[in-house]
Write a structure and sequence with these properties.
The chain is mainly β and 708 residues long. It has four helices and 41 strands. The chain is globular and about 110 Å long.
Length: 708
């Protein structure tokens, strides 16, 4: 009747105010769900709860009113939202992976084909804040030395990424924010999915429990150990084994305490385990090596509707990032571990003053403990170190639309560090100007601080885990963001964005980078400076029967180390991602093509004869000495790759099932990641041989998913 509407936030909350008629009709819709129409008498009802049921997508026109409402009322600078359906259908190496899916977004750089680390607009992985239902996740790409992330995509509902200039409610990291929300569980019926691939088994179960409450269980376990054993058994090489596997576990419970009060509990665990026994030893039971590293944590979220215009969320979270090494032999016992305990108490409130004004405010109480210990019994050497830090951030964020063409989102975040006995102020200002109803100019400025850092290099290709330290004395790392650009929302829901950004780093912690392949802890940490700037292009939409997105990023990153400016190992100047999908009948086909210019590296650039004179023998001899380049003296060749995902729906024992096929590196590209100098003989020029991590052949993965 009024031709007006709104959209829900991540919690499902929405409010429509100032309705001047008694009886109205409300239509609720969401892509992939059956729309629902409700008739209301305003005199009798002012609060409603609506539940939608899944519905197959049709070829009819999809209304995108919610997307248009958000576009008109939010300053979403540098923000990209990923739904769960986007995560599970991209071509992937061996299986779907959240971090690999994010690598297709603008502003994100990856260093090689196997890397699951992400570098966002010149920022390193340790400068990215990552939440899972309020749980702080450290080193999310810890599986298999960084090849896989620690998240099971089946349980993920939504991924919100800010590549820069993020709002005041987030903070305490220099570069970017990734906020992951898990599903709440099915409130109508018990359902599940069982997925089997060459790499792992994944189980997902959700359903209702008492009083409209729900539960969710998700589990994944890999079979590296079993696959290697089976191969060696079939090949007649029974002495080959790989005693390694990893697992992920997540469970969530959501309780409806009352009509206006909800409580959720999330439990999370993720571990890599290596367990090795020396079977050749006469005392095999005393010669063992056990290594285990991973993330664990829980969060409790209490969500309350205080008034129709005010609601709040109280988060109590704990996370543990741990690394444990135990080696036991007949002569010595070795134990090395590091544990990071993160305790967080975080109340947040949202006040919808009216259609033009919204106030968000809240604070954190964060206590971090860093524990390290090493024991070498043979040398009777024991060292230990425990440090902690208290952080008390508070924020206030105000969204205001004074005119129909101008929208402001301004905020301030203050952080009191008990360790440093100082307060740090982070102001953020964002604005959107409407050139037309759905074409805007955006600009944002912000300052950010970070109070912990890693003492191992973030530029190495692989790492098992990161060693974190708190900032114990000034100066504190800080970063200044400037972002501006244009954005257009088309009538069919397609979206176009062009942004330019600049970041300036001060007092950033830079460890010595002594090895380009593996990341090791360093003793010497330097306070450096740096900057990055670039341009991003992002287009997502649908044309006829094809949907997908294309992204292009130009980035230039420099950091200063020991009075010298250099290009870090992740300085990829140009990167391009193209994702195209088509669904016809029971079949889905998705193509992903990636391209990136070469990364900087150091290496051998030649050799020279060094002559020596022997006065006693009155003779001259020589040796060849190798000439090395500077840290960033060489650029690798461009890398590119084409991947394919094919999926077909069918029935398995009367149950819906999907058979999927992933083909990685279709046209057999060899992407060089490092060079080796080969000397055939003393007097001939050296030969250069390039190596890649993926073999120059297509890698095929076949799997099946059954909905229970």
């Amino acid at each position: 009747e009024l031709n007006t509407g709104t959209y829900t936030d991540e919690s499902g909350y929405f409010i429509i105010k100032h309705i001047n008629i008694d009886k109205i009709t409300v239509q609720v819709s969401y892509v992939g769900y059956k729309s629902k129409t409700i008739k209301l008498d305003i005199k009798k009802t002012n609060t409603i709860t609506v539940e939608l049921t899944p519905y197959p997508l049709s070829t009819q026109t999809i209304r995108v009113s919610a997307l248009r409402e958000r576009f008109k009322n939010e300053v979403d600078i540098s923000r990209v939202n990923f739904q769960s359906r986007d995560l599970n259908y991209l071509p992937s190496l061996l299986e779907s992976d959240l971090i690999r899916s994010l690598q297709t977004l603008p502003g994100i750089i990856t260093m090689h084909d196997l890397s699951n680390k992400i570098y966002i607009r010149g920022g390193t992985p340790d400068e990215i804040l990552m939440y899972l239902d309020g749980i702080t996740i450290y080193n999310p790409a810890s599986h298999l030395f960084g090849l896989f992330s620690t998240f099971n995509t089946d349980a993920v509902k939504n991924v919100e990424m800010y590549a820069g200039a993020y709002p005041a409610r987030f903070g305490d990291r220099l570069s970017a924010v990734i906020n992951i929300t898990t599903k709440n569980g099915n409130s109508k019926r018990l359902r599940g999915e069982l997925s089997q691939s060459f790499l792992s088994t994944r189980l997902f179960i959700e359903g209702p429990i008492l009083n409209k409450s729900t539960f969710l269980l998700s589990f994944r376990r890999t079979y590296f150990d079993f696959i290697v054993w089976l191969y060696s058994y079939l090949a007649g090489m029974n002495n080959i084994n790989l005693p390694y596997y990893f697992y992920d576990f997540l469970s969530k419970y959501r309780f409806s305490v009352s009509r206006n009060l909800y409580l959720s509990l999330t439990l999370y665990g993720s571990d890599d385990i290596i367990s090795f026994t020396d079977e050749t030893s006469a005392e095999a039971q005393k010669n063992k090596i056990n290594i285990q590293w991973g993330n664990r944590g829980f969060s409790t979220n209490l969500f309350a509707y205080i008034t129709p215009s005010l609601y709040g969320n109280l988060t109590i979270a704990y996370s543990l990032f741990h690394t444990d090494l135990n080696a036991l032999s007949t002569e010595e016992t070795i134990r090395i571990f590091q544990h990071i305990h993160d305790f967080t108490l975080k109340p947040d409130f949202t006040l919808k003053i009216d259609e033009k004004k919204t106030l968000l405010f809240g604070f954190d109480m964060k206590y971090l403990t860093f524990s390290e210990n090493s024991l070498f019994s043979y040398y009777r050497d024991t060292t230990s170190d425990t440090s902690n830090t208290f952080l008390f951030p508070a924020y206030c964020e105000f969204k205001y639309k004074p005119l129909s063409k101008i929208l402001f989102d301004t905020g301030i975040r203050s952080i009191y560090s008990y360790t440093l006995k100082n307060v740090y102020i982070n102001p953020i200002l964002s604005a959107k100007y409407f050139i037309s109803d759905f074409f805007t100019f955006n600009i944002s400025l912000g300052k950010y601080n970070q109070f912990l850092y890693t003492i191992n290099s973030q530029e190495a290709y692989f790492s098992i885990y990161d060693i974190w330290k708190p900032v114990k004395k000034p100066p504190v790392p800080e970063n200044y963001h400037i972002v501006s650009g244009i954005e257009n929302l088309f009538s069919n829901g397609s979206r176009f964005r062009l942004e330019a950004f600049y970041k300036y780093y001060k007092n950033v912690k830079i460890p010595k980078n002594s090895n380009f392949m593996f990341s090791f802890p360093e003793d010497s940490i330097y306070n450096g400076t740096g900057y990055s700037y670039g341009i991003e292009f992002f287009l997502k939409g649908k044309y006829k029967f094809i949907s997908g997105w294309i992204t292009y990023t130009f980035t230039l990153t420099r950091r200063k180390y020991l009075a010298r400016w250099y290009a870090p190992a992740y300085d990829r100047t140009h990167s391009l991602n193209l994702v195209l999908s088509n669904t016809f009948g029971k079949n889905t086909v998705i193509l992903r093509w990636t391209f990136g210019t070469g990364l900087p590296t150091s290496g051998i650039i030649g050799k020279i004869k060094q002559y020596y004179y022997d006065p006693i023998e009155n003779s001259t001899s020589y040796t060849w000495e190798t000439i090395y380049s500077l840290k960033d003296g060489i650029r690798l060749p461009p890398s590119h790759r084409l991947d394919l995902h094919i999926e077909r729906k069918f029935k398995a024992f009367s149950l819906p099932a999907f058979l999927f096929l992933d083909v990685i590196n279709i046209y057999m590209q060899k992407n060089i990641v490092f060079y080796e100098i080969i000397y055939r003989d003393e007097d001939s020029p050296p030969e250069i041989e390039g190596y890649s991590f993926l073999p120059p052949v297509p890698i095929i993965t076949l799997g099946i998913k059954v909905k229970l």
